[in-house]
Amino acid sequence: MRPVKVIVLICCALKTVAQFNSSFLDYSRRGRNISANVEYSSGSNFIQSSFINRFLFGGHISQEEKDRATNKSKGYNRLGINLNYDLTASFKGTKKIDFLVSIQNHEVFNSTINRDFFKVLFYGNKSFLGETANFSHTNINAYRYQELKFGAIWHSVDSVAKIGVSISLLKGEQMLFFSANNNSSLYTHPEGDLLSFQTNFNLALSDTNSARSILSYNGLGTSADLYFELPYKGLCGKKNTFLFNAYNVGFLNWNNQSLTYISDTNIVFEGFQFNSLAQLSDSTVQNFSTDSLINAASDVKKESFVTNIPSSLILMNTMEINSRLNLNIGLQHVFASNYKPYYFIEPSYTINKSSSVTGHLAYGGYANFNLGMNYVYQNEGWYFRIGSNALQGFIAPAKSYAQSLYLSVAKKLK
Predict the structure, then answer these.
(1) pLDDT over 90 (residue 199)
(2) Residues 67, 46: contact at Cβ < 8 Å?
(3) Is the separation of the CB atoms in 317 and 242 below 8 Å?
(4) What confidence tier does 282 reach under pLDDT thresholds 50, 70, 90?
(5) Cβ–Cβ < 8 Å for 63, 41
(6) Whole-structure pTM value
(7) Element (H, E) at 70
(8) How many C-beta neighbours within 10 Å does residue 36 have?
(9) Alpha-carbon span 168 to 103, nearest angstrom
(10) How far apart are CA 345 and CA 208, in angstroms?
(11) CB-side exposure of 248: number of CA atoms within 13 Å?
(12) What are residue 164's DSSP bridge partners?
């Protein structure tokens, strides 16, 4: 499969952690349980949620939406989309240790998008007649992989603290990495009859001949989680809890049918103009002479290679205000994912024995400001949680830049 075509297809087709996708944090909230969980999030500092929804799920992206994103964009911009779902069981082991087993699916897309790259992608090269579109420092990462996790939780360390560790086996299904380096650019002649493409880029793909399904096996890897929770007394004698959680720290080794392209040369095309890269058909791609593009690459290989998966860190402190009200203050960061540090504050109010509600105010990540809420209902046998860390994307998608939704249903175990 050709490089230009692959970038377009995967960017458009990969429909994808969010909401602190942590098995140990879920255990801390629920205790021993069997649960089903799903989490979705999308965010950008320049593309509105309505645009992202149509890009992912289909629909007409209007000229107004493209213009609004272009006007909002800066030199370099962020976009991230994530979908995770899992079946997890935590159960009794010994007197002080519980065990955890989880089967998970992860779909991840993140990028730093150069403003000129975005304009060529959605407007074509007509807006650059007589000019050079600079693609430098555009970066795209797309992963789809599955995880089998085994963990243990020491829930009575020094009678109050908790420590959790886990190791996971990862199966890689699909991967794309694209990086446009310095001097990567596209020049369009004022008459539109000549293109000069400076191809300074790196591209890596998992096996393109493999069927795209959850059963596909194109890579193998491992990851680890570490969790630590420590209750302590605050300055006013109130109960506080400090939490540290590093998770999804690992890698995937893609098989020897994977492809890598490295190119640093100049290619000239004559008599060609396109309206939108996102709308290229197979026949148009052939006319674009992608065979010449591959031949121009300085290094084209079919080989095995290793990539780091996005790994997350959470630091959080919970303060007890009174018997009904707690306050969480924390930081999340996702490494190797074009992500900004995510600072959040969460007031949590207990309505009654069975119900509680938590607000969420945050800054960072892929978007900037986020406002969310979640509701929890539980009894002796069941736990139910629904919420969002970015409600604004559902309330006003045309004016907001992030969405998220998460749902958990758990059967409690003794």
Answers:
(1) no
(2) no
(3) yes
(4) very low
(5) no
(6) 0.86
(7) helix 63-72
(8) 13
(9) 10
(10) 43
(11) 27
(12) 153, 227
